[in-house]
């Protein structure tokens, strides 16, 4: 089962990456059985916390979104995650030849590498149930660092490249990931101007 890899990547990453390479899960199956499920954790937790629990900044009053607004923002976030993971996987495949990977033989490996490397970020979504900005930032920073290390660790195994090439390859992919992140932030601002911005509850 694909979800078993989520635990294996924390317990024994090298063995798990080797299993993932041998598995050759088709991208559609990988998305439906893994990414669609785990990517929903953060948006669902964010919806619950921002519409029902609320948060405070300093000694200010409790802040909450309306349920409709929280739902809209959660759905948009979910879609952005799905697009971001796919774009990262596409970048893995696109850069494969440059770094000597044998990816042309197994096109699904790029999507698999991107999807499984994002596992810590998917699971960090549970932290959003406690809507404290600083707590969430710390948890997601730790998750992002571990995800970056997973990608670096998995590149030589999944893509079949020398370890000395993995550092430059992973650096290029992290740059792509940052571009994707910035693009989603810009997209959020644009959507807010079209009426999809947060709406706060009164009182």
TrEMBL record:
Keywords: Membrane, Transmembrane, Transmembrane helix. GO terms for cellular component: membrane. The keyword Endoplasmic reticulum does not apply. It comes from the Bacteria. It is found in: Membrane. It is a multi-pass membrane protein. Pfam families: Yip1. The chain crosses the membrane at residues 31-55, 75-96, 108-128, 134-155, 167-192. Residues 7-183 form the Yip1 domain. InterPro entries: Yip1_dom (IPR006977). Coiled coil: none annotated. This is YIP1 family protein. It comes from Marinobacter confluentis. The lineage of its organism: Bacteria, Pseudomonadati, Pseudomonadota, Gammaproteobacteria, Pseudomonadales.
């Amino acid at each position: 089962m694909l979800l078993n890899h989520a635990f294996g990547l924390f317990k024994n990453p090298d063995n798990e990456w080797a299993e993932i390479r041998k598995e050759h899960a088709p991208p559609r199956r990988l998305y439906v059985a893994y990414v669609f499920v785990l990517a929903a954790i953060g948006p669902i937790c964010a919806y619950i916390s921002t519409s029902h629990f609320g948060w405070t900044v300093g000694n200010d009053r409790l802040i909450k979104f309306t349920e409709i607004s929280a739902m809209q923002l959660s759905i948009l976030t979910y879609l952005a995650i799905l697009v971001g993971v796919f774009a990262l996987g596409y970048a893995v495949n696109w850069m494969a030849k440059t770094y000597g990977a044998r990816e042309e033989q197994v096109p699904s490996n790029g999507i698999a590498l991107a999807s499984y490397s994002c596992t810590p970020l998917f699971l960090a979504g549970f932290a959003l149930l406690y809507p404290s900005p600083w707590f969430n930032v710390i948890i997601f920073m730790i998750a992002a660092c571990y995800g970056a290390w997973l990608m670096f660790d998995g590149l030589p195994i999944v893509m079949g490249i020398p370890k000395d090439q993995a550092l430059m390859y992973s650096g290029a992919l992290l740059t792509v990931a940052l571009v994707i992140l910035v693009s989603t932030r810009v997209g959020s601002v644009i959507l807010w101007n079209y009426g999809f911005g947060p709406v706060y509850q009164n009182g």
